[in-house]
Design a protein that fits this description.
By secondary structure, this protein is α+β, with helices and mostly antiparallel strands. Helices cover about 35% and strands about 25% of the residues. The protein has helices at about 10-25, 35-40, 75-80, 100-115, 155-160, 180-195, 205-210, 215-225, 235-245, 275-280, 290-300, 320-335, 350, 375-385; strands at about 1-5, 55-60, 65-75, 85-95, 120, 135, 165-175, 200, 255-260, 265-270, 300-310, 340, 345, 360-370. Strands 1, 2, 3, 4, 5, 6, 7, 8, 9, 10, 11, 12, 13 and 14 form a 14-stranded mixed beta sheet that branches. Strand 11, helix 12 and strand 12 form a beta-alpha-beta unit.
């Protein structure tokens, strides 16, 4: 029999966070999350997303052993914006036992019904900047610190419980092109720059980036507004992400494009891959993890493409390709071999079409699942149709 226990103490929260470390300890492709980031994200007193979210976390035990975890998230801002009475599930992991997965998902479904919701979807976080999607393809590809790994059997369990695809994200691996190919892309972009009066900032240090940090997130809120499940980031969230992302940046891998009035129109944030260092130190920064992270920031053969966004009016102008090529030109100079793009929605054609300029392949696929619950309202409707 499976026992479901709600997380209520700090000790239980740490067990919740550390469970995947046990489940994936022998998996060569799993990259652990940073423990400090997980604690800050799940702590209701520290994560500013709790200004508009409620959440509960549960642990599953069988025969006294911890065998699963799941989070239920009620994002009130999402419900107001999109008009969907959905509860999110996230931070889901479980052993290959149907009894365990069923108990976990029934718990979230009951939580959704208690909140007057009609559907459950996920895996999703509190906001679009959190990890999203269940891995359904690419199980033998190395992960990144901004995505979760999942065993292949997760997909089978969810679908057996009545969850179906709602949307997919694709991740691409991009090989760093030769200098001649990068220059060809730059020539294409330069014509657009001349036509629209744009220029790329020549960044030498972090101080030059800082004045544009706030505007980066303004563009994210505009450019991502119509994407699946997106909810506008608050001022507190924006400041938190500025502190998080811009502490790791290398000016070689940040691209900022401005118009004639110095207004930011697009940006690309690329960070040397931290997967190797984080995996080596099992998600811990201290006492020695941060040393290897600093080394990987300075010397690395793989980049992670974290964020790329442009103002909607510049989507089809060649600006996105110019930003990527600028980062890849510096990557080539620094001996980088490849870059891994963050998950992009399969229907985001503006981004998906960007990869045609490069030697790229889709190497992983993630899926958001949904299950429409049998509420009293839907039961009455089905009875009416059966008459």
């Amino acid at each position: 029999m499976v026992e479901i226990v709600e997380v209520k103490t700090r000790k239980q929260l740490k067990e919740f966070i550390k469970f995947p470390f046990k489940l994936y300890k022998d998996n060569p492709y799993w990259v652990p999350p940073l423990l400090m980031d997980e604690l800050n994200t799940l702590d209701k007193k520290k994560n500013p997303a709790f200004e508009y979210c409620d959440a509960k976390y549960w642990l599953a035990y069988k025969n006294g052993e911890l065998v699963g975890r799941i989070a239920g998230i009620q994002n009130h801002a999402y419900v107001r914006k999109w008009g969907n009475k959905y509860t999110r599930f996230g931070w889901v992991d479980f052993t290959d036992d149907p009894e365990v997965s069923e108990a976990l998902f029934k718990t979230v479904e009951n939580y959704a019904k208690e909140n007057g919701m009609e559907s459950v979807h996920g895996p999703l976080g509190f906001c679009d900047m959190d990890h999203q999607g269940l891995l359904v393809e690419g199980f033998e590809e190395m992960g990144t610190i901004i995505t979760y790994y999942h065993h292949p059997y997760y997909k089978e369990h969810l679908e057996r419980l009545g969850y179906v695809k709602d949307v997919d994200w694709l991740e691409h691996e991009i090989l760093v092109p030769e200098s001649s190919e990068i220059e060809r892309i730059n020539r294409i972009a330069s014509r657009s720059f001349e036509k629209y009066g744009l220029r790329m900032l020549d960044l030498k240090n972090k101080k030059q980036i800082k004045p544009y940090a706030r505007e980066v997130f303004d563009i994210i809120n505009i450019a991502y507004d119509d994407l699946y499940g997106y909810v506008t980031l608050t001022e507190k969230q924006i400041q938190g992400y500025i502190d998080m992302y811009f502490s790791y940046v290398n000016p070689d891998y940040i691209c900022l494009i401005v118009d004639k009035d110095d207004r930011l129109v697009g940006f690309g944030v690329v960070i040397p891959s931290l997967s190797r260092a984080v995996k080596k130190h099992n998600g811990r920064l201290f006492p020695f993890g941060f040393i290897d992270i600093l080394k990987d920031i300075k010397n690395n053969d793989t980049l992670d493409l974290y964020l790329v966004a442009v103002r909607p009016e510049y989507k089809m102008t060649g600006v996105p390709a110019a930003m990527i090529s600028r980062c890849l030109r510096n990557a080539h100079k620094n001996g980088v071999k490849k870059a891994i793009a963050s998950p992009q929605l399969e229907y985001n054609h503006a981004v998906q079409s960007l990869w045609r300029f490069f030697d790229a392949r889709p190497h992983r696929r993630r899926r958001c699942y949904i299950k429409h619950l049998k509420t009293k309202k839907t039961v009455k409707q089905s009875m009416w149709y059966n008459i």
